[in-house]
Design brief:
The structure holds two protein chains of two kinds.
Chain A (H helix, E strand, L loop, with lengths): L2 E2 L10 E4 L6 E5 L23 H5 L6 E3 L2 E5 L13 E4 L2 E5 L3 E6 L13 H18 L7 E8 L12 E7 L4 H17 L3 H12 L3 E4 L3 E4 L10 E5 L6 H4 L4 H18 L5 E6 L16 E6 L6 H6 L2 E3 L3 H10 L7
Parallel strand pairs in A: 1-3
Antiparallel strand pairs in A: 2-3, 2-7, 4-5, 5-8, 6-7, 8-10, 9-10, 9-14, 11-12, 12-13, 13-15, 14-15
Helix pairs in contact in A: 2-6
Chain B lengths: L2 E4 L6 E4 L9 H4 L25 E3 L13 E5 L13 E4 L2 E5 L3 E6 L13 H19 L6 E5 L14 E7 L4 H17 L3 H12 L3 E4 L3 E4 L11 E4 L3
Antiparallel strand pairs in B: 1-2, 1-6, 3-4, 4-7, 5-6, 7-9, 8-9, 10-11, 11-12
The chains are: A alpha+beta, B alpha+beta.
């Protein structure tokens, strides 16, 4: 959760802080100044095209442009790479200024809200833009991880809900979830000398009960231990740890499966809010992740709320079996509308 | 019976609600409207609408499942885990599954429908805490359970579906991931520094002073140095 805070009139510099117990990093985003009392005001939501700042931004020079996709720096960046990355300690705590970059990807010049409604060629250009930006950011020796993600709809954390866009964050520390994933995959490889994600693809294609859709290069599943109703993962059938390098030659297939899945959400679940997160391997020491990691995309509609039990334990309650979610999504007639 | 399933990548367990699962189309319509007083099953006089109580704070000689209680604990009518039976584990290819064994209770914190935790008197609050303690001890004795968590959801955006002030308790057949991470982190810190990370946090917070919210002789409330949420606060006992 990204969070905004200004203490009195003294605007502190944004920071990265590490939880001393579990080692989780937090961005303290002071630059997006909001007084404590402002949290009680409802957030204004922009849907109207006339008020859409992205419709204006698309005409201004950005940091990158590719087939109608435009990358701009966030107007309220949470991360900043103008000063070199430097870790400090504060007593037992670890802190640094919030080094990194925060970019907005405007996916289409037109004021279209949902990626599901973009033509496959445009979705392909968005995916290629992610890859190209990742290739640039990973040259920065301070950067440890790059995440491309999307918040669609108010419940998914978006305030401008009229113009399709996503975000790219490049951070100088390894997020805890990434460590968990690479660690788990490594443990499996050490034990079995087989790739965990490849075994998962094989098993899912064999049992079929959690397969939502597939094409030549990708399969969409509802994971066996889903946290959320209709949680889905897009898994490439080819083993590759890195998104930017791994999609080469498969861009059309990826765009097709992404559109297919987002249409199933839109038509089957009444246009829900959703997030997707591209899960690629850490950018440093990439060769050590070659065997263990397998890039993929987590896509999840936001239909339920995370409550005290989940927050207190990291243990989730999924109110519908993933087999039932998959069967439902399989039945959605996506071709009727495309 | 609900199922417990383990994510093969990160090792996180989830509860899959197999039996009473909602149909796929129930989710978009689920508006989480809290249950109003007129039909509230937690109000006195409607004790029969909940499963029979397992514990309560009530005056001597007052009869179970009748009005007069101060705090009342009942099994959840729609439990996410079932307390009968034994744990059965099964591997399915790369996946691991267990029977959804556990306990799921509701602690009704007071008889008054409109009185929230902030409006309880000190004595009423003490009754709630002592009920927490009692249930915690009781369920910890059951050898099938490895972890007990007591939590509260207040307001619909925090996940509450019943207005009447209440907390919940879930007993689990394994230690959950977040707790394992905390234990591991604290152990690592202890090996490295030879002291308790939580005690050191308290000392540091006293030194810095800027994140302290409130305190009394035994407890400290503060905003953690690396919070996840705006206004996140921790209450920590000063005694180890």
């Amino acid at each position: 959760m990204l969070f905004d805070f200004v203490y009195g009139i003294i605007s502190l510099m944004s920071q990265l802080r590490k939880d001393p117990i579990v080692g989780r990093w937090t961005i303290i985003a002071t630059e997006r100044a909001r007084r404590p009392a402002a949290f009680v005001d409802p957030l204004s939501v922009v849907t109207d095209q006339n008020q859409c700042s992205y419709c204006q931004d698309i005409a201004s020079p950005g940091v990158y442009e590719f087939h109608g996709v435009k990358v701009i720096n966030s107007s309220s960046p949470i991360l900043d790479d103008s000063k070199p990355f430097e870790r400090r300690t504060h007593g037992l705590y670890d802190v640094s200024h919030s080094y990194g970059s925060h970019e907005i990807v405007l996916e289409v010049p037109e004021h279209i809200a949902n990626m599901a409604d973009l033509p496959p060629e445009q979705i392909k250009a968005v995916m290629q833009t992610y890859a190209l930006r990742m290739q640039i950011h990973r040259k920065n020796p301070f950067i440890e991880y790059i995440l491309a993600y999307k918040n669609y709809g108010v419940a998914a954390g978006s305030r401008n809900i009229g113009h399709s866009r996503s975000q790219i964050m490049a951070v100088p520390v390894l997020p805890m979830r990434v460590k968990d994933k690479t660690g788990g995959a490594k443990q499996y490889f050490d034990l079995h000398e087989r790739f965990l994600f490849c075994d998962m693809v094989t098993q899912e294609l064999k049992t079929k009960e959690r397969v939502v859709a597939q094409n030549e290069h990708f399969v969409v599943i509802t994971p066996f231990a889903s946290r959320f109703p209709f949680e889905t993962w897009i898994l490439p059938k080819n083993h590759h740890c890195d998104f930017a390098d791994g999609i080469v030659g498969f861009e059309d297939s990826l765009a097709a499966i992404m559109k297919d899945l987002l249409l199933r959400f839109k038509l089957g679940l009444n246009d829900p809010a959703y997030n997707y997160m591209i899960q690629s391997s850490p950018v440093k020491n990439a060769s050590s992740f070659k065997e263990n990691y397998h890039w993929h995309i987590e896509v999840m509609p936001r239909l339920t709320r995370v409550a005290g039990f989940e927050r207190g334990t990291g243990f989730y309650i999924c109110p519908i079996p993933p087999e039932m979610s998959a069967a439902f999504l399989r039945e959605v007639d996506v071709h009727a509308r495309t | 019976m609900p199922e417990l399933r383990r994510d093969p990548v990160v090792g996180r367990w989830v509860i899959i609600d197999v039996d009473q699962s909602k149909g796929p189309l129930d989710f978009p319509k689920d508006d989480n409207t809290p249950i109003r007083q007129a039909i509230c099953p937690f109000c006195p006089g409607r004790e029969h609408q909940t499963p029979p109580e397992v514990d309560a704070v009530r005056p001597p000689k007052s009869v179970a499942n009748t009005p007069g209680w101060q705090v009342r604990t009942v099994p959840n009518k729609f439990p996410v885990l079932i307390s009968e039976g034994f744990l059965q584990k099964e591997g399915i290819g790369i996946y691991d599954e267990m029977t959804g064994l556990g306990a799921h209770e509701v602690l009704i914190e007071g008889p008054d429908h409109d009185k929230g935790l902030t409006e309880l008197t000190k004595e009423e609050m003490q009754a709630v805490i002592s009920q927490y303690q009692g249930r915690f001890r009781k369920l910890s004795q059951d050898s099938r359970f490895k972890y007990v968590v007591i939590f509260k959801n207040f307001g619909s955006s925090a996940g509450a579906t019943v207005e009447h002030t209440h907390s919940q308790l879930i007993a689990l057949p394994m230690v959950p991931k977040t707790v394992l991470e905390e234990l591991k982190g604290a152990e690592h810190y202890h090996q490295f520094r030879g002291s308790c990370v939580f005690c050191d946090i308290i000392s540091q917070e006293y030194q810095d002073k800027e994140r302290i919210v409130a305190e009394n002789s035994s407890f400290l409330a503060f905003c953690p140095y690396a919070p996840r949420y705006a206004f996140e606060t921790w209450i920590i006992p000063k005694g180890h």
